Amino acid sequence: MAQTIDEDDDGLPLGERLFLAFADAEELPAAAMAEAAARWGTCGDFFVEVLRGYASGELDPTADGDAPTILLHLVAQVRDTRAFLPLIGLLRQDGETLEAALGDVLTETLPRILVAVFDGDPTALEDLTADPGTDPTCRWSAIDAYMALHLHGAIDAARAQRLLARIADSGLAPDDMGWIGWLKGCALLDDAGLDARARLSIADGRIAPLEYGAAEFDAARAERAANAERLREETAPITDAAALLAQWYGYTEAGIAARRKAATLGLSVGRDTHVNPFRGIGRNDPCPCGSGRKFKKCHGA
Fold first, then answer.
1. Which residue has the higher pLDDT, 269 or 109?
2. What is the value of pTM for the model shown?
3. Most Cβ neighbours (<10 Å): which of 14, 165, 185, 208?
4. Per residue in 116-140, pLDDT tens?
5. Max CA separation in the chain (angstroms)
6. CB neighbours (10 Å) of residue 177?
7. How many Å apart are CA 267 and CA 264, to the nearest integer?
8. Distance from C-alpha of 237 to C-alpha of 85, rounded to nearest angstrom
9. Whole-number Cα distances in Å, 17 to 6, 14, 33, 110, 124
10. Cα distance between residue 53 and residue 149, in whole Å
């Protein structure tokens, strides 16, 4: 049988061949990513099935190297809405699994990915954000994505108000990082009831979201229009997944060298070469050190 253009010399279908390139590459597989995006009609079904496997537990997302990170950015680039529900399923896994499989995706690009693959029905995203069992960092990013969809006109204000009220009633721990996303969401909506509830929750100690307190909430309300525009910009479509990921430290020459050095010492090091004590802090949020400056201009510089 003649070899088709969708098979390599080993007879592997295009999707499987590219997936192996994503999982096994030490450096960013930019060429394979470009081929995947250009030929999504041929390999997209396979990639979506992989994501469904991660969501169902049939596949282990921590066993495939950088493939989960690359796949999520690719489905966002091509805006494949079939990936929305599998992604929500993947995000329901425990925090340790998510950190090992996705790393900085949770804090850097998850809102952009969720917005890009949104299938028009916010129910699954609402359930994720309001579930006390959801990883707190994931919850924060998921709320940001939900509010961005509202700002983009995909979800009406009344529905967004109901979700924020539902989250407040869901029994989250006082130190759940999702409360920061909740407060930011309340600040974006012009709703007196949510404003009052947010202020009371801060005042009576019901929530304790790091350094994001009454002053920060008031500032966010006063700058509602500016914050809304910033969230729109931060969730803009991903047009070149490879170019975006090439900016991450783990894919730079220094990051790759650090991984090689660790490997010679018998250590296991992922794209993040150390534990980040500021994991979950947005670059434009107040720095948790208490300096009063934005994180990106302080410890995040």
1. 109
2. 0.84
3. 185
4. 999 999 999 999 999 999 999 999 9
5. 73
6. 23
7. 7
8. 19
9. 9, 5, 11, 26, 32
10. 26
Question: Other C-beta atoms within 10 Å of 215: how many?
Answer: 12
Instruction: Provide φ and ψ at 37, rounded to 5°.
Output: -65, -40
Q: Which two tokens stand for residue 279?
A: 């994991």
Q: Which two structure tokens, joined as six digits, stand for 194?
A: 């949510």
- Give the contacts of 272 (CB within 8 A, at least 6 positions apart): 103, 104, 250
Phi, psi torsion values for 77, nearest 5 degrees? -60, -45
105 neighbors 66 (Cβ within 8 angstroms): no
Look up residue 54 and give its two tokens.
């991660």
Distance CA 107, CA 27 (A): 22
Q: What is the DSSP letter of 238?
A: P
> Is the Cβ–Cβ distance between 117 and 72 less than 8 Å?
no
- 56-112: pLDDT as tens digits: 999 999 999 999 999 999 999 999 999 999 999 999 999 999 999 999 999 999 999
Give the C-alpha separation, 236 to 298, whole Å: 25
